[in-house]
Design brief:
With about 280 residues, the chain is an all-alpha fold. The chain is built from 10 helices and no strands. Pfam families: Wbp11.
Length: about 280
Amino acid sequence: MAKDKERSINPAQAQRRLEKAKALKKGKAEVQARRNEKLARRNPDRLQRQIDNLKAAEESGQPLRPSEKQHLEELERDLRAVKKAREALGDKAPTFDGDESVRRIPMPKDTPPPIPRQHHTPRRATNANMEPLGEGRGRGEAQATTTIVPVPVPLPPPPPAAAQPKPKPEPKTVYEAAPVIKDLRKEAVSKFVPTVVRMKQEAVKGQSGRLLEPEEMDRLEREGYIPGASSQPGQPSPVESGAAIGTGPKTGSPAMNATPPTEVNTSKMRTVQIEDVEDEDI
């Protein structure tokens, strides 16, 4: 029967259980070591003084409050834990007493006596009607202590600093957006040109793709399309006349609205006189 039990045990599973137990033990040891280090940093003498003060107040005949009793129990429990932790650490436990050679150095004559520490107990709501009147109000009387307040001495004015040269202003580039002024009259003459006038201008410049006959060149020169040609006074230029025509109301395409400029009649006026002549043969 024992052999069957030994056969049923899995060696791999037993090894895992052993490793798990070792890990748990190691974790508990680390937690306990950190707890001991934390408790060892607390000063047991200070805890003992707080316990003695509370016990002295209780022995004086004044009963402790429930919160003070609870605080006393916590202090006693913490003191036992701190002593146990310091014993566990041994020489590694921190020390709170200073060097004896330093503690024997006397203080200067003008040094005021040290102010005793006041251990504050947790406050709780009290009824003012239950407190006694007079100077002996509450547990313990306030002791008047003399304190020396240092008076600040004004420092002498600093010496005048040497005049430092003023830094030169750095050149800066300022970008401005000035308004663009346009001459609408010139734009109207240059842009709004009738189709017929534009075709004649292109023909003069040779952009129409065909050659002009001499008669057509003469006619265009008389109409003022060729620059430098003299035009009759008082006659508007073809561009101006075309622009004026284009500014009127339009009904249809630009080619229908545009009208060719009036050709200048340069032929002379001829007069014809009819005379009655008698026939000599009759």
